Amino acid sequence: MLIGTAPSTQLVRRVNAGAMLKAMRGAGVVTGTELMASTGLSRATVISICDELVQLGWLQELENQRGTGDYVKGRPARRFIFDDSAASVIGIDIGANKITAIVADMAGTTLTQTTMPFRTFNVPADERADVLDRIAADALEKAGVTADSVLAVSVGVAAPVSRDGEVLTAQEFWKSFDVRRIVSERHGWQVLLENDANLAALAERWQGTAQGVDNLVVMLAGDRLGSGILESGRLLHGQVGGFGELGYLDNVDGVGDTYGIAHYASLWGREALANDATSSLGTLCGGDPAALTAEMVFKAAADDDRAARIALDRVAHRMARVIGSISTLVNPELVVIAGGVAASVHALLPDIEKQLADFTFTPPRLATSVLGDGIVSLGAIRHALDYVEEHALDLYPASLRKHEAAG
């Protein structure tokens, strides 16, 4: 008796179609021979899937001209181009106090990025949904595309999310705010959900400093610490989406919790200021220590302020322990620090690197992200594009839907 079954022909065809779309995105005009070389598929498979993708509206076949392209048995090669404008996707980052949305075309090119204030707590779910509607409508209008062109929406949330896109049930806030159901019911869009740090990892490997790196940790390190982890190029989730969650830091000596760099830079900056009234930190915060921000501490340290340097030395030591612990667990090639503090944290990397060997036998390379505050939304775009590629044979671009409706 045979155990298990071979993949269905349709499943294999979907995988092959996704591989071809990935190879064609941003490649310009390609021939069947070039697609064979980039995908490893046979000529018959390539041409058959290209014909189907042309019918679905994903590809355009270009008219051949003599003397152009390669030849097979005297005939000019068929030439195809991926229609970047065939449809669009939306990536949304729901943060603690703001929402950031990006609209992109099928090449992954950002058409617009929009940010709107967002109150997460003590606000009814319908009101939160209204904010999502407004930012999505605003982003689509600025991008110059219609709502019916959207094939997938990916949403990043600060909570563990399973492989099936379900938020960990222990997260009460997200239980009361069912983003996938609300957005899908209101717009009919395919809505995907993913952890924000996981999306940051996808963004870094796609367009950031981690391009080409298969074993990677990306840490969102602002007010809180969170991490997305790729192993052999695969995003890891764990049983219920908890892989990469950093709650274990509560039990790590010299760390003790999951608060991030921005939190401790300002906290320890206030403590250092209390011990050094001559520090320029007092001037920067207007004489009100409660108003001291992480940015102020980094600025003062760059000007060689002693109190600020003491505060950031403590931050560097703590981050060395954090990165050392996670590196011992998953052994990444590269750790990228991302989020709103990334640009400032670059100055701390030498101090962190010097101390890493004290906390792990396998110290990784370190880098800071250059993708800015939009990193989670950008990762959401990558997530949505992956979905579209995987389901290309089941999805119809808006242009084709309109044509069929007219017919």
UniProtKB/TrEMBL annotation:
This is ROK family protein. InterPro entries: ATPase_NBD (IPR043129), ROK (IPR000600), WH-like_DNA-bd_sf (IPR036388), WH_DNA-bd_sf (IPR036390). CDD domains: ASKHA_ATPase_ROK. SUPFAM superfamilies: Actin-like ATPase domain, Winged helix' DNA-binding domain. Belongs to the ROK (NagC/XylR) family. Pfam families: ROK. It comes from the Bacteria.
